[in-house]
Design a protein that fits this description.
The chain is built from ten helices and twelve strands. It is an alpha/beta fold. It folds into two domains: about 170 residues, no CATH class; about 140 residues, Rossmann fold. Strand 10, helix 8 and strand 11 form a beta-alpha-beta unit. The longest helix has 24 residues. About 5% of the residues have low confidence.
């Protein structure tokens, strides 16, 4: 919805959304919602592309062409590279393509991780995505399509690597942060670090890396340390001997019950904006994140309860907190 705020959209414009849930409510009369989990949608996209993560299928293009072939648009906004091919099916005066994740940057950051099945899946997804982005970059030099990034880090990466002049479409995150900051008791860490969110794709790779290479040293250095994970796929990391509790999917989590805990985001791949950090800011809880995990945010937006540092420094940071 933040795209709509940027573009000054109206009820007279057309909107096409890909949604994960049938419960999504789109407040526009000219909105077409395609549900990602629909079995027919999955089959058609998989057969069209050979990879279910990319939704620019021939089936969808044919549908859009039949619906909009007689219309001429002043402006076409494409919110993801997966739909880049749509520009061939619409008549328009100008177009803008927003990169939600820069797969070229993720692909570069993937080098050096331990190889396993999940890594292979992520490597393939990043490989496919980066090739799509390379094709788009080549096409940009020939067509009147503007490309924009959502973080300054990704913008700088692409402009430097490919000698481009890509713009920035940064969300004003302050508009999405409710003013919920209130006076609170002095912080006394309960020796819990907490992960909130589902684990798949690059988030799963980063979490495995953290648990295998960083957490053991933290556990040995900080007496009584416990690690709790909440979200789809987190139950796979349950390890009572290491004080790791993976609770799996939870319907709702009262973050105020974690006022003396530290939430973590051990992102070592980057890509897009991690909106879960907004949840931490809104609920006035402390969190520790990497630089890559904080991309798209300024320190002012994240507030005083955020600590941003490389994974290699996390042990010293947590030791200092535990000694307070």
């Amino acid at each position: 919805m933040s795209d709509i705020e940027h573009l000054n959209c109206s009820q007279d414009d057309y909107y096409i959304f890909i949604a994960d849930s049938i419960n999504i409510r789109i407040p526009f009369k000219k909105a077409l919602v395609i549900y990602r989990n629909n079995i027919f949608f999955r089959i058609f996209n998989f057969l069209s592309n050979g990879h279910p993560a990319f939704y620019s299928s021939t089936f969808l293009f044919l549908f859009f062409w039949l619906k909009f072939r007689k219309r001429n648009f002043d402006f076409l906004f494409i919110g993801d590279i997966n739909f880049y091919g749509l520009n061939n099916y619409f008549k328009y005066k100008s177009a803008k393509l927003r990169l939600h994740n820069v797969y070229l940057k993720i692909f570069d950051n993937l080098q050096g991780f331990r190889f396993d099945f999940e890594y292979a899946k992520m490597y393939y997804e990043a490989f496919v995505g980066s090739n799509v982005e390379k094709k788009i970059i080549r096409a940009l030099r020939k067509r009147d399509i503007e490309m924009v990034c959502i973080t300054e880090q990704e913008q700088r990466y692409l402009n430097t690597k490919f000698d481009l002049n890509i713009g920035l479409l940064k969300v004003n995150l302050k508009n999405h942060i409710k003013n919920t900051l209130t006076a609170r008791a002095e912080f006394c860490w309960d020796k819990r670090i907490v992960w909130l969110g589902g684990l798949s794709s690059h988030k799963l790779i980063c979490m495995k890396h953290f648990i295998e290479t960083i957490y053991p040293d933290l556990k040995n250095s900080i007496n009584g340390l416990k690690f709790e994970l909440y979200g789809k796929g987190t139950d796979r990391f349950l390890s009572t001997e290491n004080d790791i509790c993976g609770y799996g999917f939870v319907q709702k989590l009262d973050l105020q019950k974690f006022s003396n805990s530290i939430f973590i985001n051990p992102d070592c791949l980057g890509g897009g904006v991690k909106l879960k950090l907004l949840t931490f800011v809104q609920n006035n809880v402390r969190f520790l994140t990497t630089e890559l995990g904080a991309e798209g945010f300024s320190r002012e937006e994240l507030g005083d309860f955020a600590v941003i540092s490389d994974l290699s420094n996390w042990k010293n940071i947590l030791l200092n907190i535990s000694n307070c």
